[in-house]
Design brief:
CATH class of chain A: Mainly Alpha
Membrane topology (chain B): Multi-pass membrane protein
Number of strands of chain B: 2
Oligomer: heterodimer
Distance between the termini of chain A: 33 Å
Largest interface: A-B, 93 and 101 residues
Keywords (chain B): Cell membrane, Membrane, Transmembrane, Transmembrane helix, Transport
Number of strands of chain A: 0
CATH superfamily of chain A: MetI-like
Number of domains of chain A: 1
Largest sheet of chain A: none
Radius of gyration of chain A: 22 Å
CATH topology of chain A: MetI-like fold
CATH architecture of the largest domain in chain B: Orthogonal Bundle
CATH superfamily of the largest domain in chain B: MetI-like
Protein name (chain B): ABC transporter permease
Distance between the termini of chain B: 35 Å
CATH architecture of chain A: Orthogonal Bundle
Organism (chain B): Rubellimicrobium aerolatum
Number of helices of chain B: 14
Structural class of chain B: mainly alpha
Order of helices and strands of chain B: HHEEHHHHHHHHHHHH
Strand content of chain B: under 5%
Shape of chain B: globular
Radius of gyration of chain B: 26 Å
InterPro entries (chain B): MetI-like, MetI-like_sf
Order of helices and strands of chain A: HHHHHHHHHHH
Chain lengths: 268, 313
């Protein structure tokens, strides 16, 4: 059946809504090239590439970027293991308390981030754990599990259980079945989930402020610049780069899971 | 199916282990569930427990030392008028943001679900997905640029000769301020922008399940578009709307960065929690404050479940 045409005003409202979503982000791009260095004057009085060089030479930005990448890598690895295990259990078997497990996985992202943050901080406080790289990872991995879990569960549900049974009937061990049957089937879902978890961790700030002590990840660096601006044009450049860098894993994850019944990311 | 039916048992350590797991699925289940449950139970639930425990501690007002004997004093402090004000302001903001998100999200979701096809469908999907995942701080920062006195909104009003209108709006007490970036209107706009994708996706998911013929039938039977919306579309979209509102409501309740960067100095729950535990060093009161959004969300989720909102997520 051919789809009927939308009334013009509905198209206008939808387009306007999308503009409201994207306009502000695109505006950052224009500001990154502005010659103005102290205020937010619009339109930009002139265009320059000078700030890209200035940002490149700032060691604090490189340090923050490095910490963010390391945290995101380790958290994603932990989340991949825990999320996949949990998804395998929830998707393939029915057991008492299954609903509770699902709820427990979703909770860290359903409750406001500040709750997770302050809860972790008070736990570190009570247990006398000093802030370190690992306290940041502890927080990030906890809320990244749900992203991997959601992607993996969707794939496990579509995968036929008889495949595993056939492999076992033919004499394979669980290790062989995992390597030759299960992993090839869920690989793209895991890759997509992992990329989304990476993007989530790379961008996280609310929980991180509570678990980082005085270490600065890239989002914390940005937050500092927002609260106490030092060099605005450099912040503009960093903001633009962050937008471009986080868009890549999202697009990749979309392509990896396209055409399956649940598309990655819809359950952030 | 049992291992016996699978013929000869597997040899070697790995083989024997596999036989054991095949025969006893509960062992396999325990192995699968153990690590994630241990992590989430220990790290997450343990932390939530620690938070709850701290809310029963109290702080010595003179020395600032935290007294670890259990007391309800901190909870009493939470009920001071100033703190109740903060809670009321936050819940009101969360409700307004949720309402506005529904209004802005509905046309996008409806267009994407009913009229967008093929490439356009993908474009709409990514058009919602990219802002959802793009950096939260960058979005907040972008609004600081937009709403600044010399920013694009002020420039827009000036260049069409309506600068006086913006001035008049900003002088209204309660919603205005020195510039848009230090007004409650600014805070509201940024909240709507940042959480909007969380509203669009579940509404779209709900609308995808409404057959187009239902809307046509309503029109054929003589209903005006307004009546079709009220009696056909809206009731069917409602679970999606409620599911989306869980996100917009919860996220607004707990946010402490947006009101700190764009808005007046009036405090919201998130900001109060942040300041009590940080500068004030009053962790017990911060902990008690943090329980408020959990309680509000608990009530909200209970209501949402009764409306069947979870089927639309």
């Amino acid at each position: 059946m051919r789809a009927d045409r939308a009334p013009w005003w509905l198209g206008a409202l939808a387009g306007g809504g999308l503009l409201f979503l994207h306009g502000p982000i695109l505006l950052i791009f224009a500001y990154a090239f502005s010659t103005e260095d102290s205020s937010f004057t619009w339109p930009p009085p002139g265009l320059t590439l000078r700030w890209f060089g200035a940002a490149w030479e700032r060691p604090d930005i490189w340090e923050a970027l490095g910490l963010s990448l390391r945290v995101a890598l380790v958290s994603t690895a932990v989340a991949l293991v825990l999320g996949t295990l949990c998804a395998a259990a929830v998707a393939r078997t029915r057991f008492f308390g299954r609903e509770v497990v699902s709820l427990l996985v979703i909770l860290p992202i359903a409750l406001p981030g500040i709750i997770t943050g302050i809860a972790l901080r008070s736990a570190f406080n009570l247990a006398d754990i000093p802030f370190s790289f690992w306290t940041i990872v502890l927080g990030h991995a906890t809320f990244c599990v749900v992203v991997v879990h959601n992607n993996a569960v969707a794939r496990f549900r579509r995968m036929s259980g008889s495949l595993i049974e056939a492999s076992m009937d033919l004499g394979a061990t669980y290790g062989q079945t995992l390597r030759h049957v299960i992993l090839p089937n869920i690989a793209t879902a895991l890759l997509a989930g992992g990329m989304l978890a990476f993007a989530l961790s790379f961008d996280e700030v609310i929980v991180t402020t509570f678990t980082a002590g005085n270490q600065a990840t890239l989002p914390i660096w940005m937050l500092e610049e927002l609260v106490r601006p030092r060099e605005r044009p450099v912040t503009n450049v960093v903001a633009m780069v962050v937008v471009l860098v986080t868009a890549l894993p999202i697009l990749a994850a979309y392509h990896l899971t396209r055409g399956t019944d649940t598309v990655a990311g819809s359950g952030k | 199916m049992t291992a016996a039916a699978a013929g000869a048992a597997r040899g070697g350590v790995a083989g024997r282990l596999s036989d054991l797991l095949w025969r006893r699925p509960s062992v396999l289940l325990a192995l699968l569930l153990g690590p994630p449950l241990l992590w989430l139970g220990l790290v997450y639930l343990g932390s939530l427990g620690a938070l709850l425990v701290q809310s029963f501690f109290s702080i010595d007002e003179f020395s600032g030392v935290i007294d670890r004997t259990p007391t309800l004093r901190t909870w009493g402090e939470l009920l001071r008028p100033a703190n109740l004000d903060i809670i009321a302001r936050t819940v009101l903001m969360a409700a307004l943001v949720t309402g506005a998100s529904v209004v802005v999200a509905f046309p996008i979701a409806y267009y994407a679900a009913r009229y967008a096809r093929g490439r356009w469908k993908a474009a709409f999907y990514l058009g919602v997905m990219l802002p959802l995942w793009s950096s939260y701080l960058v979005k907040v920062y972008a609004w600081k640029l937009i709403l600044a006195k010399e920013g694009i909104v002020g420039w827009g009003f000036e260049s069409v000769g309506l600068g006086w209108l913006l001035e008049a709006f900003l002088s209204v007490p309660g919603i205005g301020g020195n510039s848009l970036s230090v007004s409650p209107t600014g805070t509201f706009l940024v909240f709507v922008h940042v959480w909007l994708p969380f509203m669009i996706l579940p509404i779209q998911a709900a609308l995808e399940r409404v057959p187009g013929s239902l809307v046509e039938a309503s029109a054929d039977l003589g209903a005006s578009p307004g009546r079709t919306f009220r009696h056909v579309l809206w009731p069917l979209a409602l679970p999606g709307v409620v599911a989306g509102s869980i996100f917009t409501f919860s996220l607004t309740l707990g946010d402490y960065i947006i009101p700190q960067i764009i808005g007046t100095s009036a405090r919201f729950i998130g900001l109060a929690v942040y300041q009590y535990q940080g500068t004030a060093g009053n962790v017990p009161l911060a902990a008690a404050f943090a329980v408020v959004p959990i309680a509000v969300m608990g009530l909200y989720l209970w209501g949402a479940k009764r409306m069947g909102a979870f089927d639309a997520m």
